[in-house]
Amino acid sequence: MGAVKANNYFRPAALIALYDRNVFALVAHIAEAGYAWKLATDFGLSKESRKKWLIQTFILGFPSLKILRSYRRSRRN
């Protein structure tokens, strides 16, 4: 019985930590998507392309942003 009570005691803390991590991930993805929009605008991409980069980066996060940043390097060469 003692183990069950201890398990119930820690459950709310675990849920709060899970919630905090999800909120942080959401905020990070929104920030990355905004930065992707800015980069795509700086590259002179069309509004449709910028929208696609925004959506892709919001869903995938850093890997998509990394591809977009490499596009900038390839345009310089």
Main attributes of the structure:
3 helices, mainly alpha, 77 residues, single chain
Helix-strand string = HHH
Distance between the termini: 68 Å
Strand content: under 5%
Shape: elongated
Global structural class: mainly alpha
* Number of helices in the DSSP assignment: 3
How would a crystallographer describe the biggest sheet?
Answer: none
Helix content: over 70%
Low-confidence stretches: none
What can you tell me about this protein's structure?
- InterPro entries: TMEM254.
- The protein has 3 helices and no strands.
- With 77 residues, it is an all-alpha fold.
- It has one domain (2-76).
- α1 packs parallel to α3.
- The model has no long low-confidence stretch (mean pLDDT 86).
Element layout with pairings:
Layout lengths: L1 H41 L4 H14 L1 H15 L1
Quick synopsis:
This protein has helices spanning 2-42, 47-60, 62-76.
